[in-house]
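Why do we bother with holo predictions? Because pocket geometry can differ from the apo form. Keep that in mind while you read this record for DGJ.
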Amino acid sequence: MTIYYHEGSKTFHLTNDQISYIFTVLQNDQLGQVYFGAKIHDRESFDHLVEIKDYPMAAYNFESNRSFSLEHLKQEYPTYGAGDMRYGAFTIQQNNGSRIANFVYESHRVYAGKPKLPGLPATYVEDEQEAETLEVTLIDQLTDTVLILRYTLFANLPVITRNVRFEQHGKEKIYLDRALSLNLDLPDRDYEMVQLTGAWSRERHLGIRSLEYGVQSIYSLRGSSSANFNPFLALKRPEATEDSGEVIGFSLVYSGNFLGQVEVDTYDVARVSLGINPEEFKWPLETGEMFETPEAVMVYSQTGLNGMSHTFHELYQKRLARGHWRDKERPILINNWEATYFDFNEDKILDIAQAAQKSGIELFVLDDGWFGTRNDDSTSLGDWFVNVAKLPDGLSGLGNKIEALGMKFGIWIEPEMVNKKSQLYQKHPDWVLQTPGRAMSQGRNQYVLDFSRPEVVENIFEQLKAAFTDAPISYVKWDMNRSITEAFSAQFVADEQGKVMHQYILGVYSLYEKLIAEYPEILFESCASGGSRFDPGMLYYAPQAWTSDDTDAIERLKIQYGTSLVYPISSMGAHVSAIPNHQLLRLTPIETRANVAFFGAFGYELDLTKLASEEIQKVRQQVAYMKKHRKLLQFGTFYRLKSPFEGNVTAWMVVSSDQKQALVGYYRVLQQVNDSYHRIKLQGLNPDFEYQVSLIDEKIYGDELLHVGLTVSDQSSGENHDHYNGANGDFQSRIYELTVS
Ligand code: DGJ
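The structure, written out:
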């Protein structure tokens, strides 16, 4: 890993064994982008790649030099208005109303390691040798504003992380109207854009589209990163597949409003932008103040989407997620939400917990409804003390009884919200986000607390501390069940209202940070109506997230497949729930429900006391199976093999780092009649190892499984006289175990 600076050509080259990232100081002292991709040899100058030619009708910067046009140059961190006709990465409004800026190179420094971003989640290093950081300082002389572009190159990963800091040194107050984290001008548009799109209960479905001239974007304006779009996009070559070809992935370590955009100009340059959504954002900077953008991560892959995902998984599992639980196998839990909803008391909970304990389940999670006077969703958010009508012995009484069974105990919270029917709202009605003179939109009967205010965060922290200290809490599910509307904070004057959305998220991060510091061994699981805030920012605080409120196994194939593009398997909360499924009324075999959920942070979400004894027996077997394979499932290398978005069959697999163990999940949605033979080519195996393959009970060499494939044809696919035999019918699945002795 080296970060070169070539004095003569004023060129930066960040390179490791896998990638090169090159940019240079242009003739006008601004920065020009040169290259991002597979590693290339270093040289003193890459000036020949800065393509300058005399374009007709272009705006140009130097008198009598028609060829230097920002409109046609690839730039590093551009702004609109002084020659570039595309969307810029930043806009600064000055006292006189001008938005023109001219940031020129001033200096740079390179150092070992990677700095923390104050108040923001970010990837990190444990040892300074793992990465090198470059900071380039630019200055706008007229306003005396300093811009620092920060790049970290990881030694052993095809990754560059970026963030930007604005510092106002000048006397006048300026306003950041746009301050993105990343801009990348790519020299052609021969890509498809990959994104994760959805809505509640169908989060992170995979979407792929060709790049067109103009702007294509993904975004959130909901205050959370959202179920609708994830803060991730990738550009893949049209011929790239899951396993081969060039892909560049872009991910934003942030949980609030974002914008991800690819602008293709009519000269075929593709400009990628990623950062805080400029809509609803305006950040004033007085003399001496600074603004730090969230971190953006760029991943380069020459081995298709799976290759990109492996890099994201490794980085996000080991160098974004933190703390006590980062490397630990996750406890198998049972959650009472779909079992009881709000309708429970201590006896009911203990009945379920006892049944769970007998099945080997390790953690009981008490979901919504344990606090205040909450019996439905109309009251008590904000009152984080126990509902004694339901739990007469308090949270501690229940927690201790569950611990006495030999299980751990966890609870649900939704700390950012308040109901009007609550003690907190009665006392502090001005603590919600609301615009003076305007109606407040409702969402699930609740309102959003103004987390941009430190005193609000402090109050919730103190309440939660009392609850967490009182009871033996090992796990916390942190929910967030509505979007932000009428965003306005009583603490800010008029020209500061554009800070609210970002400051809100900083408040959320600060509460997480305080709780983690106080309770480092609590396992946090983030949640937002299921998967509405499944993003890298959250992963920094909570190493797992509730993937979706949709617990139907067949829907989960799509949701988990899409989520795996960026997020590691250990981060995906996945539960076996009851049938008929509560979201779709679909009936699926309990084996399939588990076979899908095994590839995640596994648990149950049903009333075990209502299961027939044969089903309880199966639950016991599943729990034992998960315990046996949990390390491999949650920390092995994951490969997507067949996409649920493309056909009737989904397949994926995990492989151990020594390649001696693998599990292949095979899922068939509908039974086909008189079907053909099927094989699936596996990935990640050692071609020279001989694998014992379960279910077909054969020893097969890795090269055969990789190149010929695993035969997965179904026995039952024609005249089906012998009725249901456990392996035929719709929604069937199986897991093949591959072992090398
Ligand atoms: C939404 C979550 O996603 C559910 O799992 C559950 O916790 C409910 N909220 C509780 O209100």
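The pocket of DGJ is lined by residues 337, 367-368, 412, 479, 481, 527, 529-530, 546, 549 (CB under 6 Å).
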